[in-house]
Design goal:
- With 308 residues, the chain is mostly helical.
- The chain has a domain of 213 residues.
- The chain is 71% helix and 0% strand.
- It contains 13 helices and no strands.
- Helix 1 packs antiparallel against helix 2, helix 1 packs across helix 11 and helix 1 runs parallel beside helix 12.
- The longest helix is centred in the last third of the chain and has 28 residues.
Length: 308
């Protein structure tokens, strides 16, 4: 599949939001409201993952009328596991005295989203675990129920907000709250975008601006009251995911020079490595170097991307 620089640009924006939110969360820098935008970056990553993986699967199915699960899993393993395992190995060396065996097992098995006691240096692995669980299940579903994939995705997209809102209303804050079903609508809307993108009309500029406004202002509704949170989870969050998908489609249809700018596209290209390694610096409670923490994070990410 040909790489789309504008999507790398979106990744670059997303990883920047994540890094800034972690710097704010751990009091390394002070930026009003930025912490609430960290999860927005993760939402964009999820939508992009759904779109890109489904695109790959559909192209293979169109070529051969089947999907080789073995080949898919091998490609994913070589792309994801080496850098992740090196990261875990470094963490074991640096923080062995703070680790329990089940923390390492959860990280290596990509079920860290279920490990509620995971230490800070594994805190970010929850989202990578959700993505890996998606990679495990979705190709099988596409191959098994190819004709019904759109119906399955639509049901997932509609059911997830109900499930997420019910968890909040019932005050369930255990491992279920960080599970794949809670975030499945973000992946599903990305998958739906891959299915229908060739048949969708070109998104006009004013529609894209409206979607961008939703993306910018939706995080401002979080946490002020239970009623407002319920409204956000059930109504605004699905609207946010639709808007993200619309913006993804828009930048595919109308490439933007700023997103295609080589330094921005480069940051998006190495965003997986950046996401892995930034936790050791930007979320480290013992370091107080402000924005300077980004430099060693980028250095480790570059070493990981180019050498591992």
């Amino acid at each position: 599949m040909q790489r789309i620089p504008s999507l790398d640009g979106l990744r670059a924006i997303s990883i920047t939001l994540v890094i800034l939110s972690h710097l704010v969360k751990w009091r390394h820098v002070t930026l009003d409201r930025v912490e609430t935008y960290g999860i927005l970056g993760v939402h964009v990553f999820f939508v992009l993952s759904g779109y890109l993986i489904t695109n790959l699967l559909l192209r293979e199915y169109d070529r051969s009328c089947t999907i080789s699960l073995r080949d898919f899993y091998i490609r994913r393993a070589f792309r994801i596991f080496p850098a992740a395992f090196v990261f875990v190995a470094v963490v074991i060396v640096l923080y062995w005295h703070q680790l329990r065996w089940y923390h390492v097992a959860a990280a290596l098995a990509y079920v860290a989203n279920m490990d509620l006691s995971r230490p800070w240096f594994f805190g970010h692995l929850w989202s990578l675990s959700i993505e890996e669980q998606f990679y495990l299940l979705w190709p099988f579903a596409v191959k098994k129920w190819h004709r019904h994939k759109s119906v399955i995705l639509l049901c997932v997209f509609l059911a997830t907000p109900v499930f997420r809102t019910a968890l909040y209303a019932l005050r369930i804050r255990n491992g279920i709250a960080g599970s794949l079903p809670v975030y499945a609508d973000q992946l599903a809307i990305g998958c739906l975008l891959a299915v229908f993108a060739p048949r969708l009309p070109k998104i006009r500029g004013y529609v894209a601006v409206a979607m961008l406004m939703v993306v910018i202002f939706e995080p401002w509704f979080s946490g002020s009251s239970p009623a407002r949170t319920l409204f956000q989870l059930f109504v605004l969050r699905p609207l946010l995911h639709l808007s993200i998908a619309g913006l993804v489609l828009h930048v595919i249809q109308v490439p933007y020079r700023a997103l295609n700018w080589s330094p921005v596209a480069w940051l998006g290209k190495i965003s997986y490595s950046v996401y892995l390694w930034q936790e050791l610096f930007c979320s480290n409670p013992t370091l107080h170097l402000g924005y300077a923490l980004v430099l060693p994070a980028l250095a480790c990410a570059c070493l990981s991307y180019y050498l591992v």
